[in-house]
Amino acid sequence: MAEVAQVLEAIMIIAFGISWPMNIIKSYRTKSTKGKSLLFLLFIGFGYVCGVVGKIVGDNITWVFAFYVLNLLMVSWDLVLYFIYRTREKRRAAAAAAAEGEAKAPSEEGVDVAAAEACGEGAAAPCAAEKEDAASAEHAPHA
User: Fold this and answer.
1) Would the N or C end of the chain have less CB density within 10 A of its end CB?
2) pLDDT per residue over 77-92, tens digit each?
3) β-sheet bridge partners, residue 106
4) CATH assignment of 2-103?
């Protein structure tokens, strides 16, 4: 009967463990933490640590123990990827915010620097399209 219990335990651990390679591959491909929960990963990791320690303390190290260790390694790797990609996402967000702040900064004359630079002209000169709009407005009949 103990062997049946080990087989059932192994099936449970294998069933849990099947999802980790897919999760790790998804993280690696997308290089993103979207859809990930740090708290979930930490609790799962903690659960596997408890399972490993329980097997050791209970002197119940059987072939099933290998699956606990394998799953713990996969969860740990997923956590490593999480922190790597989360750090990158924060850096990108900070850089984007800084770039956006610079793009919206007006010059001393009150001209939008980013818009003028996008026109390929100096900061004080408006775009050619804006010049044309201004010229056509001057010659338009007044109602």
Assistant:
1) C
2) 999 999 999 999 999 9
3) 112
4) 1.20.1280.290
